[in-house]
């Protein structure tokens, strides 16, 4: 109780200083550990953690007790005081950034071996982006991970996620003023390509209005980002280019559907016939990585095609996937996060949630149908951006991303060329006058860092260091 009272007093002191626009220096404050709890050991990992992990909650809403957003914060393993600070959001829509922590860019991952009833094992990820950046992984939207709400009804939507993320970030920085001067970025992938540019615009607008704390926003990076709700239209072109459908079917689709494959008139029987043939051709293909094996549970346990994904809830079946399936790691995560020893180690509040869910299982309201206008506004304000695409992704094909970037009509300052890692081509890149860099990641899928971690770490390192890829 004493520690909680000291925490509240310290928070009020910081907020008062920020409100008065008084420069904050650390010697004016007492230690900040009470805002988050340091985690030194994790069940499943052998020995003490060789990196600094903090977990905690940030209260949102009129009353801090209404909505509690849980986060994992990993300090940079290089120089936390000087290295960038990044907030990471995962797509879904409606999946916790825990996915980014353990599957993509965080310092540890699940060891893929058959579950035997004990806590799943964790191993270090050598290519963690925390080698050079402080990263916040947050359980948003509400209802994912360990976040929870009392006295309020969940309403999950694009704009609700935008506002909650911005409020979370500002409150987190108030609680962690030692990071206010660090360069700040947002990283995200998949469906988060829709809400994240809007979050960035809210941050920029807040800075311009003088809202405290000022956030040292420098830019953003998005992987295989959903952007215009027209991505499905490019799946046909991509599938044909990769030899997944015949020339004849491709020509028929173009002729009968006239380039529109999403909102097809039910009276257009020829187009609907061709789309059924297309679906049959792709029925055994893993759309997130066309070279990876296909599992029957893929579309139900992880992401469906975007057309299906946005029209139905994302749920987790009770069936256990095969060990060889890529999605087995999601099964291990559920076992790990629902273990009482894990919850205790992470300092989860008792009774706050029931079963842990990486992705929530109710509908999500779409309100932003294109994020292109936000990219335009952010470019005008001079923010840097890195947009990258795993080139084996059929869910958001690289052609669809290239199309909306091309429509921005910015001049090219560094034309299409290879970029390399360890002397090998890692992909192709192009840079534009609006400080936007586009890159493909060769041999990678929908979540590129999970498939090609070494290449993606090199890409992230060069970009945040203002070096050409």
Automatic annotation (TrEMBL):
Primary localization class, coarse: secreted
Pfam families: Peptidase_S10 (PF00450)
Name recorded for this polypeptide: 1-O-acylglucose:anthocyanin acyltransferase
Gene Ontology molecular function terms on file: acyltransferase activity, transferring groups other than amino-acyl groups; serine-type carboxypeptidase activity; sinapoyltransferase activity
SUPFAM superfamilies: alpha/beta-Hydrolases
Subcellular localization: Secreted
Source species, domain of life: Eukaryota
One Gene Ontology term from the biological process aspect of the record: secondary metabolic process
Assigned protein family: Belongs to the peptidase S10 family.
Record Gene3D superfamilies: 3.40.50.12670, alpha/beta hydrolase
Keywords on record: Acyltransferase, Carboxypeptidase, Disulfide bond, Glycoprotein, Hydrolase, Protease, Secreted, Signal, Transferase
A single Gene Ontology CC term: extracellular region
InterPro entries noted in UniProt: AB_hydrolase_fold (IPR029058), Peptidase_S10 (IPR001563)
């Amino acid at each position: 109780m004493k520690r909680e009272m000291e925490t509240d007093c310290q928070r009020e002191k910081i907020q008062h200083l920020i409100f008065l626009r008084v420069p904050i220096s650390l010697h004016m404050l007492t230690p900040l550990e009470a805002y988050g709890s340091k985690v030194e050991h994790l069940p499943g990992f052998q020995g003490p953690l060789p990196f600094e992990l903090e977990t905690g909650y940030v209260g949102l809403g009129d009353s801090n007790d209404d909505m509690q957003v849980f986060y994992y914060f990993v300090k940079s393993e290089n120089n936390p005081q000087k290295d960038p600070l990044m907030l990471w959001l995962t797509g879904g829509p409606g999946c916790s950034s825990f996915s980014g922590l353990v599957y993509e860019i965080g310092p540890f991952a699940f060891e893929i071996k058959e579950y035997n009833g004990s806590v799943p094992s964790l191993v270090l990820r050598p290519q963690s982006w925390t080698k050079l950046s402080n990263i916040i992984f947050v359980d948003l939207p509400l209802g994912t991970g360990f976040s929870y709400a009392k006295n309020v009804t969940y309403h999950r939507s694009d704009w609700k996620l935008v506002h909650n993320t911005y409020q979370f970030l500002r409150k987190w920085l108030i609680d962690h003023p030692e990071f206010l001067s660090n360069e700040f970025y947002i990283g995200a992938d998949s469906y988060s390509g829709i809400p994240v540019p809007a979050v960035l615009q809210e941050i920029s607008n807040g800075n311009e209005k003088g809202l405290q704390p000022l956030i040292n926003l420098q830019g953003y990076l998005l992987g295989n980002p959903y952007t215009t709700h027209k991505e499905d239209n490019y799946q046909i072109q991509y599938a044909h280019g990769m030899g997944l459908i015949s020339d004849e079917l491709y020509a028929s689709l173009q002729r009968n559907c006239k380039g529109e494959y999403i909102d097809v008139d039910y009276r257009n029987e020829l187009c609907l016939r061709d789309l059924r043939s297309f679906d049959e051709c792709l029925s055994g293909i893993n759309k997130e990585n066309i070279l990876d094996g296909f599992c029957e549970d893929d579309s139900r346990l992880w992401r469906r095609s975007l057309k299906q994904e946005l029209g139905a809830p994302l749920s987790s079946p009770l069936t256990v996937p095969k060990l060889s399936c890529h999605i087995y790691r999601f099964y291990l995560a559920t076992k790990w996060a629902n273990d009482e020893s894990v919850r205790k180690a992470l300092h989860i509040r008792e009774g706050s949630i029931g079963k842990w869910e990486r992705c929530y299982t109710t509908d999500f309201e779409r309100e932003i149908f294109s994020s292109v206008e936000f990219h335009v506004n952010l470019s005008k304000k001079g923010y840097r951006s890195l947009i990258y695409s795993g080139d084996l992704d059929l869910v958001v094909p690289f052609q669809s991303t290239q199309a909306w970037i091309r429509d921005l009509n910015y001049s090219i300052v560094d034309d299409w060329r290879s970029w390399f890692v360890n002397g090998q081509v890692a992909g192709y890149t192009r840079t534009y006058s609006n400080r936007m860099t586009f890159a493909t990641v060769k041999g990678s899928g929908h979540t590129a860092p999970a498939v090609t971690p070494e290449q993606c770490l090199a890409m992230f390192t060069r970009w945040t260091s203002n070096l050409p890829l």
